[in-house]
Design brief:
Layout (H helix, E strand, L loop, with lengths): L1 H38 L2 E6 L3 H14 L4 E6 L4 H7 L5 E5 L1 H11 L4 E9 L2 E3 L14 E5 L2 H13 L4 E2 L12 E3 L5 E5 L13 E4 L1 H7 L9 E2 L8 E6 L7 H12 L1 H11 L3 E3 L2
Parallel strand pairs: 1-2, 1-3, 6-9, 6-10
Antiparallel strand pairs: 3-12, 4-12, 4-13, 5-10, 5-11, 7-8
Helix pairs in contact: 2-7, 2-8
């Protein structure tokens, strides 16, 4: 009897092999990718900052909702874009629009911003003086060395009344745009992430509260002058390659980040009134 059943099976599979093969192919090309898309790990790159804690909280909440997220921390402002271009990460979160546009121009990147995050204040900090008037002739002032944030620092120096720039210049200003420097300030350019650690060596420095908090060099709230939070052009952006602009995993994570009370609490704890949300 068993031999008879085996013979029938061989006849059935022989006659229906094309149909069975078609079913298996359809399953492989339709069912498997959908499953993979739902379960693949979302890799998010960011630069070292107190922002990390809020991102980790959002990642924990995403995990509870079935989305696996890995937060990858970089120690500089160049590698996150290189990693995104190399497809080592799916999205990065550390740069505002002016910085992104400059990076695209210099690196030839094809990136798009898909949603805004937080806006961070910058300030002018000093451990040597309490007022701008107390700066001595020839004092040393440190600003960021990248084209965008350096210009932002120069605009802040102009607001402080320490220098005067050519009329009409914006965040793309350079030291070549200085038309008046009555205190003969020596302006040096440093890596933005290192400005906080320069406060013992210079008289005045452009500073980012997040880096100052990490470095512990002074009170992040102690700037002699802050810029405002009203310019959303300086909001940190979620940046992706064009083909990932509608990736549901990325969109889901951004939504969690933007709507989570625990994320907002972490941001409040890290930055107090030194930040604002831009969404």
């Amino acid at each position: 009897m068993s031999q008879f059943v085996s013979a029938l099976r061989r006849v059935f599979f022989a006659r229906n092999r094309p149909a069975i093969h078609a079913i298996l192919v359809a399953f492989a090309f339709n069912a498997a990718p959908a499953f993979a898309a739902d379960t693949s790990t979302l890799k998010i790159g960011t630069a070292t900052s107190p922002q990390i804690e809020a991102l980790k909280i959002a990642a924990q909440e995403a995990k509870q909702q079935g989305l696996d997220v890995k937060i990858i921390e970089f120690t500089d402002w160049n590698t996150p874009n290189a990693a995104l271009a190399n497809k080592d990460i799916d999205v990065n979160y550390f740069q505002h629009i002016p910085f992104l546009e400059n990076a695209k121009k210099q690196g030839g990147y094809d990136f798009v911003p898909i949603a805004p995050g937080t806006i961070m204040k910058i300030g002018l900090y000093s451990k040597k003086v309490k007022r701008f008037e107390d700066l001595k002739d020839g004092a040393t002032v440190a600003i960021a060395n990248d084209p965008v944030n350096g210009g932002r620092g120069l605009l802040l120096l102009q607001r402080a009344g320490l220098i005067k720039l050519k009329p009409g210049v914006d965040y793309r200003a350079t030291t070549l745009d200085i038309v008046d420097n009555p205190k003969h300030l020596k302006i040096v350019a440093l890596e933005a992430s290192q400005l906080a650690r320069s406060l013992d060596d210079v008289d005045l420095a452009q500073g980012y509260p997040s880096f100052i908090k990490l470095a512990g060099t002074t009170d992040p709230n102690s700037a002699l002058l802050f810029d405002g939070l009203e310019n959303k052009n300086f909001a940190i952006q979620w940046v992706v390659r064009p083909e990932s602009a509608n990736d549901p995993r990325i969109r889901k994570f951004i939504s969690i980040y933007q709507h989570s009370p625990a994320v907002r609490a972490a941001l409040d704890k890290a930055f107090g009134n030194l930040y604002a949300v831009a969404w």
